[in-house]
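Protocol step 4 of 6.
Sequence for Small ribosomal subunit biogenesis GTPase RsgA (Enterococcus durans) entered exactly as in the expression construct, tag removed. Do not edit the line below.
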Amino acid sequence: MINDYGLAVYEKKMKLDTNAISHIGRIIENHSFSFTVFFDNHQYTNVKMSGKCANKLILMKRNVAIGDFVQLSLEQENLIILDVLPEYTKISKKVSSNKTREQLLATNIDVVLITIACDQKFSLGLLERYLLAFSSSEFKIHLLLTKSDLKERYLFISEIIASTYPELKILPVSIFDKNLDEKLLPLIKSSTVVFIGASGSGKSSLINLLMRDNLQKVNEVKKKDHKGKHTTTNSVILPLSINDSSYLIDTPGIKSIDLWDKSDNDIFSDIQTLEKHCKYNNCTHQKGQTDCAILQAIELGLLDKKRFDRYISFQKEVDRRKERTFEDRMKNNRAIKNRQNLKRKSKKNFK
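Step 5 output, structure tokens:
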């Protein structure tokens, strides 16, 4: 039984009965068809799943992700994954070949550090997308404005964020700050942490600083568009301090975050409150709509129209994905019924 790599936190949050479930390890690296697993104070490579576990995941349409806790079996000195345990948080994106299929990137995360570089083009919409994607109360979110030594850009971006979301705390980050690690360590103590941000936003540089080692290759950002090349080629968990049970998950540069569920999120709570004051429950908030609280707020300058448009766009994105998911399920159900009917007919013909 292991008591590190975040297992103690997992046991507490999931109310796990470790007497009923033994031999628990954690996925710390994914090699497509095999995994590196931390178990019993050792790292084991080339760990594979049992056929039963693989079939179960196929039916669930779930992949194994970095951060998953797994139940293991020792067979002839080889570890075998018997089951993947439920996660309390997750980060995911859609599979490139399937707009409704969810691909897990990392699981069982406590802290999300969002990195936005001051030398890159700033998008308030991208920040809102990040905040919506990690709206679960299980996540602790911190916003890091990297390369803050670019004073004018830092002030420009921080003022935009503060004027729209004054409750959001911003931490200026510069690798030239000698006390930077002291500022970051309290945010991530005794947690599993993930850095999320565009390529070139400074994730790998910060990890190198915290790890006191050049563990992640850092590529120079292209000067033309200030977009970074992907410096991390695969996700991996890096132990920051075994004694403090702090772990970092580094993921490849993410250009977009997909939204899967509507949720009551603080960043749009004012809009959701206004919607409740519209005269009609099915108010479309379009021009000509009578007694619309949203239109009145925009007209009075109490609500920014661009921000409201982004809110509607996010809502529609989730609705479209749910519709496609429902259609896919119906198609799958019809396909299963057709196969069952064919089997029945073939049995009758055989008789």
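Step 6, annotate. The chain has three domains: 7-90, 111-254, 268-346.
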